TrEMBL record:
Top-level division of the source organism's lineage: Eukaryota
Membrane topology recorded in Swiss-Prot or TrEMBL: Multi-pass membrane protein
Native organism: Hymenochirus curtipes (western dwarf clawed frog)
Stated name of the protein: Putative synaptogyrin 2
Family of this protein: Belongs to the synaptogyrin family.
Principal subcellular localisation of the protein: membrane
Transmembrane parts of this sequence: 23-45, 65-88
Domain MARVEL: 16-102
Compartments it resides in: Membrane
Keywords from the named record: Membrane, Transmembrane, Transmembrane helix
One GO cellular component term: synaptic vesicle membrane
Pfam families tied to this protein: MARVEL
Length: 102
């Protein structure tokens, strides 16, 4: 159940990296990192009248904090799912596999 016949087998990095879901997870990680980096570096600017930094999203600091938080959480989620894709084939316990798949 849940891919258990491959449990305990050796890990093949080349075949893992060629899987479509792995490629999409890596691309998602890159995009999440790009969103996070863009908001952190260019999300705040100051006006010519003041040296205080304002968020470019309607000068609302909460909007920038939200965008930075979502970008960071998306990056962490991508890494978590990528790790689970690596770890799942090595599990032999059906209950653990069931919880990860669900």
């Amino acid at each position: 159940a849940y891919g258990a016949p491959k449990a305990g087998g050796s890990f093949n990095l080349e075949s893992f990296l060629k899987r479509p879901e792995t490629v999409l997870r890596i691309i998602s990680c890159v995009f999440a990192l790009i969103v996070f980096a863009c908001i952190v570096t260019d999300g705040y600017s100051n006006t010519s009248k003041s040296e205080k930094l304002y968020c470019i999203f309607n000068e609302n600091g909460d909007a920038c904090h939200y965008a930075v938080g979502i970008g960071f959480l998306a990056f962490l989620a991508c890494l978590l799912f990528l790790f689970l894709d690596i770890y799942l084939p090595a599990l032999s316990n059906v209950n653990y596999r069931k919880y990860i798949v669900l």
